[in-house]
């Protein structure tokens, strides 16, 4: 590496303090925000979950299995999973409208695609399982947390699944990245180069070690993208113990262990 | 009763009660009301435990989460700037909306607000207008030029009956929690300048509180109905009063008739409830202030 | 009794027979529910392994299941019902079912008249015979002695007492009404 002798040199790497502003989070490390997870809050739902990651707050309710409204041939053999994801009008810095925008619909679809492979739908013929997600406060990485929250609500509802689904997002900003970005981190860009700018969300089945959903936007090189996916998986594993603990509590609350036969 | 078919069914098992509840819900409730109590163990004029949490949503200018038993309502207030109308140049806007999303109960479908949500929104709007919780004049920044719009969005997260009472409490607490940034209008350029650091609260003039009742079998009056009780009742009634016992609204959408004497009972129960709620709101706001 | 997470590996298929709440993958049995493991020896060589959440979770009406339903409407060809229970487990959401005229009783099928068998509001015990197809609902039958009306109200509004397999009597007015009456077994009531 050529050294610049004509100028006064500092240390080789240094970072702007503004990068550490929001909640003192590290770049280029798998540093997910602290999460709080709880199951079974909504009395009317079959299963429900609430997740809080930093300031991002969302809840999910699962209803069903209930009779399918529209029937076709495939419904006779396996069930249908419907998802609805919405943002409360006060959830974003800018006030949202009541009318569901295209963003909500995209999110709903991605949520459905991420969850479907994990649910044993063949066990629920002629019926549908409804997943409703409400974002109460959007402070970034909403889709990733919605996936985690929804799979937890499904498990709480006693819906048979092959595995849990965990979500994690990263924001690639030039050479550096942030895991579980906040709203401002998601929408800001500090590096000058236009290369490798983008966001990535991965839905991951931790026990089966499979990816059920992958969504990326922006522009990233192949290497960056594969490295990003690996980072997201690592982030999911960090969530796993917290999610498992919440589910254990939910199971214990739902019923005492059956008597030893 | 299913049990009467069977010849010897002496000890009533809990699952038998459950069967009875699903198959004959009305009979099930009547059997409790006969004993002057309700399936959840409450007396006829007893409210469910009410809890309040304020300021939990940082993206809103004011927010509150209310739980009345299982029923949960969150209210978020967003303030935006707008031009006042020509008819009322010295007034701002308050835009209340109640949402009953499919998340809160399987009885609601996705899509535009249903009848119940529309009726609830209109009810809240009427309460705001008649009680003048906030003088819309207070929301005016520059007469005829600039004023505040308060979007008050109430969203039900768990529907177990009596959503109106919960909405009013959530709205009142959220309004008391709202902090608006200081806005000045530059007289030369006519553009507003916002100082986010300097914030001030809203002036709350009145503290209206709603109390809902259900009428069972044309005569029995119960307060704070659950979703199940609401669906079986023959009529519903909501009374709104404030700290000076002024009556703002008496909402009784159809149903069976009610005697004047019973109505008086409702109103006195409502005034007692108003005291309880105002105490609760003040207590929570105080505890939040001391925590800061 | 150990608590089990979703997707925990329980054992090899050579050690146990898979029961409910589990799935097979690569020769091993995994849990598809977060719950408790239950091993039962039912006289077979291998024990049956299941994962349970609540004491009994049969979520959907299946062929052969005994269901409790409420009659919503009748016409000369069939009775429409809402299924309330599967076994003794209440359903959170209502499923619709149909009892066709020919499935009301086992004998003299051609002489069945639906309105002499059921009335709207009756509580009926029935058995699922088919999940139905795209157009139809669950198909149910009451063609067994133990199946049929268990609770019915007379025109006077009183709850009637069964007096034979095809008649019930109102205790207030003593009028008799026709029903396909079930011979109720106590275990269905107490389960």
Describe this structure in words.
The complex is a heterotrimer of chains A (261), B (292) and C (191). Chain A has 261 residues and is an alpha+beta fold. Chain A is 28% helix and 28% strand. Chain A contains five helices and nine strands. The longest helix of chain A has 33 residues, at 222-254. Mean pLDDT of chain A is 85; it is low at 15-22. Chain B is of the alpha+beta class. Chain B is 30% helix and 30% strand. In chain B, a hairpin with a 7-residue loop joins β1 (50-54) and β2. The longest helix of chain B has 32 residues, at 260-291. Mean pLDDT of chain B is 88; it is low at 1-16. Chain C folds into two domains: 3-52, RNA polymerase II/Efflux pump adaptor protein, barrel-sandwich hybrid domain (OB fold (Dihydrolipoamide Acetyltransferase, E2P)), CATH 2.40.50; 66-190, Beta Barrel (OB fold (Dihydrolipoamide Acetyltransferase, E2P)), CATH 2.40.50. In chain C, β9 and β10 (89-100) form a beta hairpin. Chain C: Keywords: Cytoplasm, Exosome, Nucleus, Phosphoprotein, RNA-binding, rRNA processing.
């Amino acid at each position: 590496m050529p050294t610049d002798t004509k100028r006064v040199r500092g240390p080789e790497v240094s970072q702007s303090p503004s990068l550490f502003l929001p909640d003192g989070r590290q770049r280029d490390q798998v540093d997910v925000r602290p999460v709080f997870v709880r199951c079974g809050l909504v009395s009317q739902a079959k299963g429900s979950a609430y997740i809080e990651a930093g300031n991002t707050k969302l809840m999910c309710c699962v209803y069903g299995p209930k009779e399918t409204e529209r029937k076709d041939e495939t419904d006779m053999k396996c069930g249908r999973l419907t998802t609805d994801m919405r943002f409360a009008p006060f959830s974003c810095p800018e006030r949202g409208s009541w009318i569901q925008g295209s963003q909500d619909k995209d999110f709903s679809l991605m949520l459905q695609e991420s969850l479907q492979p994990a649910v044993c739908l063949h066990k629920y013929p002629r019926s549908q399982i409804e997943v409703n997600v409400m974002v109460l406060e959007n402070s970034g990485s909403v889709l990733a947390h919605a996936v985690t929250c929804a799979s937890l609500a499904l498990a709480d509802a006693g819906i048979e699944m092959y595995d849990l689904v965990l979500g994690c997002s990263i924001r690639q900003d030039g050479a550096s990245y942030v895991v579980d970005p906040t709203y401002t981190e998601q929408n800001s860009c500090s590096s000058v180069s236009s290369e490798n700018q983008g966001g990535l969300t991965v839905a991951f089945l931790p026990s089966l070690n499979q990816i059920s959903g992958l969504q990326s936007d922006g522009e990233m090189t192949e290497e960056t993208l594969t490295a990003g996916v690996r980072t997201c998986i690592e982030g999911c594993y960090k969530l796993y113990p917290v999610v498992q603990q919440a589910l254990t509590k939910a199971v214990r609350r739902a019923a005492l262990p059956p008597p030893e036969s | 009763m299913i049990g009467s078919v069977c010849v010897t069914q002496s000890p009533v098992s809990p699952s038998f009660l459950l069967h009875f509840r699903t198959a004959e819900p009305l009979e099930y409730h009547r059997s409790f009301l006969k004993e002057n109590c309700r399936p959840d163990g409450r007396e006829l004029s007893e409210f469910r435990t009410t809890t309040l949490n304020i300021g939990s949503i940082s993206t809103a200018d004011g927010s509150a989460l209310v739980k009345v038993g299982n029923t949960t309502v969150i209210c978020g207030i967003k303030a935006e700037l707008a031009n006042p109308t020509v008819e009322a140049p010295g007034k701002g806007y308050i835009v209340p909306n109640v949402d009953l999303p499919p998340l809160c109960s399987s009885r609601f479908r996705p899509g535009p607000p249903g009848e119940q949500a529309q009726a609830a929104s209109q009810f809240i709007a009427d309460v705001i207008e008649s009680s003048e919780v906030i003088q819309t004049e207070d929301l005016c920044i520059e007469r005829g030029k600039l004023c505040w719009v308060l979007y008050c969005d109430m969203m039900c997260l768990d529907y177990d009956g009596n959503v109106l009472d919960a909405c009013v409490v959530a709205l009142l607490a959220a309004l008391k929690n709202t902090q608006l940034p200081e806005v000045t209008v530059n007289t030369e350029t006519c553009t507003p300048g916002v100082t986010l650091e300097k914030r001030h609260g809203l002036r709350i003039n009145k503290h209206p509180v709603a109390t809902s009742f259900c009428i069972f079998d044309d005569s029995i009056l119960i307060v704070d109905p659950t979703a199940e009780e609401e669906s079986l009742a023959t009529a519903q009634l909501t009374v709104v009063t404030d700290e000076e016992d002024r009556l703002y609204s008496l909402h009784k959408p159809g149903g069976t008739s009610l005697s004047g004497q019973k109505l008086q009972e409702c109103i006195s129960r409502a005034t007692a409830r108003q005291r309880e709620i105002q105490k609760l709101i003040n207590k929570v706001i105080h505890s939040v202030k001391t925590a800061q | 009794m150990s608590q089990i997470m979703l997707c925990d590996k329980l054992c090899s298929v050579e050690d146990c027979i898979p029961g409910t709440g589990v799935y097979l993958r690569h020769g091993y049995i995994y849990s598809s529910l977060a719950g408790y493991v239950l091993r039962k020896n039912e006289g077979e060589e291998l024990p049956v392994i299941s994962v349970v959440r609540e004491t009994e979770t049969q979520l959907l009406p299946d062929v052969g299941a005994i269901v409790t339903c409420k009659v919503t409407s009748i016409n000369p060809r069939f009775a429409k019902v809402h299924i309330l229970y599967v076994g003794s487990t209440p359903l959170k959401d209502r499923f619709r079912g149909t009892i066709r005229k020919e499935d009301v009783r086992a004998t003299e099928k051609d002489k069945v008249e639906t309105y002499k068998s059921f009335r709207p509001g009756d509580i009926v015990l029935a058995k699922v015979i088919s999940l139905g197809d795209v157009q139809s609902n669950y198909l149910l039958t009451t063609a067994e002695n133990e199946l049929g009306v268990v609770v019915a109200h007379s025109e006077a509004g009183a709850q009637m007492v069964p007096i034979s397999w095809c008649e019930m009597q109102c205790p207030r007015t003593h009028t008799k009404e026709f029903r396909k009456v079930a011979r109720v077994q106590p275990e269905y009531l107490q389960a």
